[in-house]
Amino acid sequence: MIDTNVLVSALLTKGYSSKIVYELILSEKAKLCLSPSVLKEYVNVLFREKFVKYPSFVASAEVVLAKMQELAVMYEPTVKINLLKDKDDNKFLELAVTADASYLVTGNKNDFQISAYQTVKIVTPKECWDKFNTTDFPPSYFAEPRAKYRKSK
Q1: Nearest to residue 101, comparing CAs of 110, 92, 90, 109?
Q2: Among residues 83, 84, 92, 85, which one has the least CA distance to residue 40?
Q3: Least enclosed by CB within 10 Å: which of 45, 58, 87, 103?
Q4: Spatial distance between the Cα atoms of 7 and 1, rounded to a whole number of angstroms
Q5: Which of 67, 63, 48, 59 minimizes the C-alpha distance to 5?
Q6: pLDDT tens across 82-132, in order?
Q7: Pairing relation of β-strands 120-123 and 116-117?
Q8: How far apart are CA 17 and CA 14, in angstroms?
C-alpha cells in the first residue's frame, strides 16, 4: 500500500514513486490495498486548490484514482493504532495491518520513523522499487496481499 505522498509524487514527477504507481500498481504487478478513509484522503489531497489550478494534474489524478479503485482490494480496518505523531497517518498502519500488507511505501520518514510495524515493512519508494527488482522477491510476492482477501462490503 502507498502513502498519499507517494501518489502525489507519482503524479508530479518521474521517479521511484511514479514507477511504483504506473509500473507496479497500475500494471498489476503489485496489489494495492485501500480503505475508505485512505481513499478519501487521496481524493482530498489530490483535489486541493494548489493542484486544481493545473488541469493536466487533475485529469491525471482522476484517471489514476479511477484505475486504482478498480484494481485495489478494499478493506475496512479492524484494528485501531495510535503510534504515529501525525495521528492522521495511523490509518495507513491500520489498513496495512488489517490487509496483512507486505509493505507500506512512504516518502514521509518524519512521521514514519519506524522501519516496520508487526509484519508490515515501512519503506521508501526507492527501497520498494529496489526490492521489487531483486531476485530475492519474486513478482508473485508483490502481486497479492499475504492474507486472503477480506473485502469490505
Answers
A1: 92
A2: 92
A3: 87
A4: 10
A5: 48
A6: 988 888 899 999 999 999 998 999 998 877 878 898 989 999 999 999 988
A7: antiparallel
A8: 7
Q: Which of 37, 42, 30, 35 is nearest to 5 (CA)?
A: 42
Burial readout 84-100 (b: 16 or more C-beta within 10 A, e: otherwise) = beeeebbbbbbbbbbbb
> In the structure grid, which three cell numbers stand for residue 103, read together?
509493505
Residue 150 in contact with residue 99, Cβ under 8 Å? yes
- pTM value? 0.85
- Name all domains of the chain by residue range, CATH numbers in brackets: 4-140 (3.40.50)
**Each residue of 32-84: pLDDT tens digit?**
999 999 999 999 999 999 998 888 999 999 999 999 999 999 999 999 999 88
